[in-house]
Amino acid sequence: MSAPGQRLWGSAWTLLALANLFWAGNLVIGRAVAGRVPPITLAYWRWTGAFLLAFGFAWPQLRRDWPALRRGWRVMVLLAATGIASYNTMCYIGLQDTTALNALLLQSTMPVVILLWAFALFGERPSLWQTSGVVVSFLGVAAIAGRGSLDTLLHLSINVGDVWILVAVAIYAAFPPLLRTQPAVHPLSFLVAAMAIGSLLMLPFYLWEATTGPGITGGWPSYAAMAYTAVLPSFVSYLFFNRAVELIGAGRAGQSAHLMPVFGAALAVAFLGERFHGYHYVGIALIAAGILLASRTRSATAVVEA
Hints:
Order of helices and strands: HHHHHHHHHHHHHHH
Structural class: mainly alpha
Number of helices: 15
Number of domains: 1
């Protein structure tokens, strides 16, 4: 590895910043190709492409870990369904009808939703501070989803795209707590196996969409966008994040998830021409306050955007 490459590989926060930049770019790309690349098609080829790219790197570990993966196939299916197949597909569907800014800000509630799943699945009781954080963060969600209008909330006339994003967040938030049940295998083995299973779970829906709906339009920019989602946010970001965890630990690395809305907002404004509104600022403030409250007694759970 060259000297610049060695410096990059040894700098945890540089790796984390790049990983979150690529993850934020994924949502911006998803919004940019809305109407040109069908959402299930985008999700399917994102993970199938990432699997094909990562397979060669992971083969030595995958061959060694195959017996453990086979014994834990039920857990692997559950993890792939929550962390790979459902989450990304629903996000891309939601981005057909909502802005990248809204999607990014709504996703920033992930740390507090994880607390709810940890309690539901494993009985981890949240503290008073954490409970308060959940309440405050969901007030932020309400401000964004209701576009700052109490009347909108009272009449439940929220954007359908926001609903898809919120459901995606609710499903994916079960993934980090469930990771404690994963087979004891190398991270690359786990990642490639989850990609493969996730792609298989999406295959029937992809075939349905491909045969009943419009195809890919927009020429080479659409295919370039699909290639981006397969390479940078799906493979490179995971390599960078896993390396950062090795360097500074999961707790500190997980705090970097809060960079994603910052990078994503800048990208959405710069490349999509989206605009901040007053309710965005209110929502950001409430969500940030909720996360600070929820993490007061312990470090936020490490969250990886799939």
